[in-house]
User: Fold this.
Amino acid sequence: MDLHLAYPDIFSRADAATLTMLMGPRQELRPRQRIARANVPMCQSIYLEQGFAARYRLDRTGRRQFLSLHVPGDFIDLPSLVLGSIDHDIDSVGTVVLRGIAHGDLGRLMAEHPPLMRNLWRISLMDAAVHRYWIFRIGRLPGRARVANFFCEMLIRQYARGLCSTQRFELPLTQTDLGEACGITPVHANRMLGELRADGICDFADGEVEVHDLPALIRTGHFSWDYLYLPSEIDGALRQQLSAGALRAAAQGMR
Amino acid sequence: MDLHLAYPDIFSRADAATLTMLMGPRQELRPRQRIARANVPMCQSIYLEQGFAARYRLDRTGRRQFLSLHVPGDFIDLPSLVLGSIDHDIDSVGTVVLRGIAHGDLGRLMAEHPPLMRNLWRISLMDAAVHRYWIFRIGRLPGRARVANFFCEMLIRQYARGLCSTQRFELPLTQTDLGEACGITPVHANRMLGELRADGICDFADGEVEVHDLPALIRTGHFSWDYLYLPSEIDGALRQQLSAGALRAAAQGMR
DNA sequence: CGCGGAGTTGAACGCATTCAAGTCTTGTGG
DNA sequence: CCACAAGACTTGAATGCGTTCAACTCCGCG
Assistant:
């Protein structure tokens, strides 16, 4: 995943090329490896070229709560660039490919080229909007809607990068991981998945979600994607797909 | 609350003075008034000179989920400076005093004085760290611990600004608001407060929290403040207070 | 072959919600 | 000045969603 493709409205091709020049070598990590550690001073930020990565905090009993889940193409660990370190751990979820960018290089580049700083800031703010939506999801939605809502986010974030269609997307989590993302137990996650499957809404297996009825998934999850700040073309494409799907469904219903 | 006092490690006295020059007139709002609206283009950011303000999202049934609660001295609505608008509403909680800073003025100032941008970015990142901790609180802690944990955050954020001692602090919320912050019902919030009171830990009434046993409050809330990125003097002062309190408690226990 | 992790399912329990009633305070209008 | 309405707080009782405990299957791997 190339930086310009990942953030088309943030990095021009030229900016993306400059940043890519500064990146260190590709580094592959296996599942459940530590990417960044809490309270350890960092000297580089990380670009998640392939794969998924989870930020999480442990509770007293040692169980994880995911704080966010990064999808391929995310520029992660920007907080450490400005704050020096982070307050939580980040692990790979599934196999990942990372590339580091030294804080020093980024600092020099931002000094020469100030708009870059604003662009990176913008990415941080979009991440923060996602954090806030997670608070809403976990605080207000019942388990079934939580899972559906989470799937919607993962679908649309990947769709926006051209990584999937609206029928199927990658999500290399175990059911336990899914529970840790949604704040429910693995057993309950399993049951909610069973319901979504039985209702013909979607099917989660083998690290993939197959979406059978996207409008129903969105409805069940009480989802709206206003918080994702999608480029307007993508937003338009999505709306079109959905209304086309609705028309098709209505036509089928009329037969 | 002066900007330098609110962010001593971010804004020097000189920077704070410059920014304060740009601020519009003080504006007082009564409780539960709209400060910023979702999806409406903003042309100014807001400094919360006095009082409390809540970001929230409504669920389908019209109930609010707080996404964050700003305390006096917070620079709020920085997201709108970079993103243009926000995806949720912000209301006053209790009476507030606001001062606006035009995005245009901020933009010019950042252009002349690049370090300022990094400092504002830093504030955004500290806010994001708080968001993440809210996910943890709501996702992993049972009701009683959630309330205690939330109180700890409110205490320490205000303590760090010199707004309170560790014995008592302002929190002009109703029990319903508290429930909306912690993701529980008003009735349950009431019961958890009753337990904390009965256990001699703290007492929440009339918009104030009286802390009777801070170590117990922290323990009950499974709280740690690593995510608040406090200036080291403040962090040190807090640790000292706590260990002094523990020693005093131990001495009393030995009598 | 046997181990361990992931997924599945049943049953009992319990935390939190919901519904409901009642108190108290505050502010407003008769 | 009092009556009354509205909102905040409190408490009880019933319900139910989600957790916990437990058993069992399936699959990949040593």
Chain A touches chain B through 47 residues (CB under 8 Å). The mean pLDDT of chain A is 94.
